[in-house]
């Protein structure tokens, strides 16, 4: 990802603009009761496994799209195997659910809608692919350590397994990697219409993810206690 950036001369402020104009949608997704319960240590291992299972179906589609987009002039530079999460999700699901995990998981209705959108736009629309890629992977890089710390305290696991999805062993310097990613956003040469399509699709992606989280929250009640009034 970082290899040829020194040769790029023209930079824009698109990464900052994208973050600012999608912040409300991002915060709305992060405010879901299921996320708050995760961070507060009120979700047990089976609940975390349920989240990983829904992620598995989404990442399977997104990483298939990444393979398609590798050769694309604009979207290709964003594709990095160091980001890919599918094998990590498989490892974690095996850890929590056992060797027969594939037969135990099903996509929820919200995840089906999310995956349908990924299939619709990520295989032949570079801007939309980048929008979903940005939403998922930069979110994972930014929030993964906080979530891992919360889960480590609440799950009481006897070893360090079950957190491959959140670990990113091949990215030891996350801030530097995220800076490089933002440089790609700033130097990709989008026109105004393309930038607006990305912003709109990122907002849509956050809404789709929020629906998945809401459905997880409903399925796991009453283990997620209601706040006292």
Automatic annotation (TrEMBL):
Cross-referenced Pfam families: Heme_oxygenase (PF01126)
Keywords attached to this entry: Heme, Iron, Metal-binding
Top-rank taxon, per record: Bacteria
Iron in keyword set: yes
Listed InterPro entries: Haem_Oase, Haem_Oase-like, Haem_Oase-like_multi-hlx
Protein name: Heme oxygenase (Biliverdin-producing)
Organism the protein comes from: Saccharopolyspora cebuensis
Lineage, highest ranks first: Bacteria, Bacillati, Actinomycetota, Actinomycetes, Pseudonocardiales
């Amino acid at each position: 990802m970082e290899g040829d950036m020194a040769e790029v001369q023209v930079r824009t402020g698109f990464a900052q603009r994208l973050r600012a104009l999608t912040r409300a949608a991002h915060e709305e997704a992060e405010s879901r009761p299921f996320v708050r319960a995760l961070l507060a240590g009120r979700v047990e291992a089976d609940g975390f496994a349920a989240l990983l299972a829904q992620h598995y179906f989404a990442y399977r589609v997104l990483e298939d799209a990444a393979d398609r987009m590798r050769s694309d002039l604009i979207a290709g530079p964003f594709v990095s195997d160091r980001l890919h999460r599918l094998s990590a999700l498989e490892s974690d699901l095996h850890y929590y659910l056992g060797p027969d995990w594939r037969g135990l998981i099903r996509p929820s209705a919200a995840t089906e809608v999310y995956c349908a959108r990924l299939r619709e736009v990520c295989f032949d629309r570079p801007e939309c692919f980048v929008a979903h890629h940005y939403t998922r992977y930069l979110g994972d890089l930014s929030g993964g350590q906080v979530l891992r710390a919360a889960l480590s305290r609440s799950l009481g696991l006897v070893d360090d397994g079950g957190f491959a999805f959140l670990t990113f062993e091949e990215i030891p310097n996350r801030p530097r990697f995220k800076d490089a990613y933002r440089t790609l956003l700033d130097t990709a040469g989008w026109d105004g219409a393309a930038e607006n399509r990305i912003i709109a699709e990122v907002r849509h992606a956050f809404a789709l993810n929020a629906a998945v989280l809401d459905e997880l929250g409903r399925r796991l009640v009453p283990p997620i206690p209601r706040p006292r009034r």
